[in-house]
Amino acid sequence: MRTRVHRSALVRGTAVLAVAGALLTGAPTANAAAAETNCNHIDDAARPTVSPGSTGSAVRQVQCLVNYYSGYPNWLEEDGGYGERTLAGVHWVQTCNETTGGADGIVGASTWSRLYAPKDACAISAL
User: Fold this and answer.
1) Burial level of 35, CB count in 10 A (0-12/13-18/19+)?
2) 3-class SS at 107?
3) What is the 3-state secondary structure of 23-70?
4) In contact, 12 and 38? CB cutoff 8 Å
5) Which region holds residue 49: left if phi is over 0, alpha if psi is between -120 and 50, else beta?
6) Predicted TM-score (pTM) of this structure
7) Per-residue pLDDT tens over the stretch 89-120
8) Residue 125 near residue 15, CB atoms below 8 Å
């Protein structure tokens, strides 16, 4: 329990610093740089289209970003398989952030952008 509390504080602190850095510098890649600390399954610039049924490193990156940067309340296993739990997390991110295309479950440019830089109300720091 104590480890989980410390981990939660560390995750929130990292997210707060990343958001603060982005706000202060105006740099759109501030969260991408912070993501490398926790989510390094693929290069942050490599953002292939990911959808239900996809597998691999890009799916693990999506799962990690949902876990560490979105305010999605359910932890996703970073197993690289885009199943029902990942779909629910992606739908949450898409709905909260009002991504282009709506909550279609397809992780394209708009969703990738919000995974790395969620709206303030949709970020883990908002919890």
Assistant:
1) buried
2) strand
3) HHHCCCCHHHHHHHHHCCCCCCCCCCCECCCCECHHHHHHHHHHHHHE
4) no
5) beta
6) 0.72
7) 999 999 999 999 999 999 999 999 999 999 99
8) yes
